[in-house]
Amino acid sequence: MINVALHGAEFFGRHGFYPEEQLLGSKFIVDISVDFEPKAELLHDRLSDTVNYEHLYELTYTQMQHPRKLIESLCQAIINDIVKHYPYVDTVSVTIKKLNPPMKGKVAHSGVTITHRANGI
Fold it and tell me: Following DSSP, what letter does each residue of the chain receive, concatenated?
């Protein structure tokens, strides 16, 4: 089993339930972890035999451009894109943290984590 991950990828997005959040936007931190069995012998040294973390970033960047009311929806859309492009993955976990969410007091970040397992367990 191999794990490919991105940690602390920073994005600006216009996600939030309230219209002001979508108007002003906010910073988000995304962590992605993908577990899979390699498609071929890794000693062949081919990028096509693994999950490309640069591509994970690009998929996430694309989804970050589409405002959503819930970061849960955003998280699921990122997972769906990863599974679509890498159908052989066993587990995909995405965490999205919204920095400085609009609260009455200081909050460093709010967050959501969704984990997709190919076997459903």
Answer: -EEEEEEEEEEEE---SSHHHHHH-EEEEEEEEEEE--SS-GGG--GGGS--HHHHHHHHHHHHTS--S-HHHHHHHHHHHHHHH-TTEEEEEEEEEEES-S-SS--SEEEEEEEEETT--
Active site residue 98: yes
CATH value at residue 54: 3.30.1130.10
Determine which one of 39, 69, 84, 98 is catalytic. Answer: 98
| pTM check: above 0.85 | yes
pLDDT tens by residue, 41-82 = 776 777 777 889 999 999 999 999 999 999 999 999 999 999
Q: How many domains does the chain have?
A: 1
Range of the domain at 69: 2-117
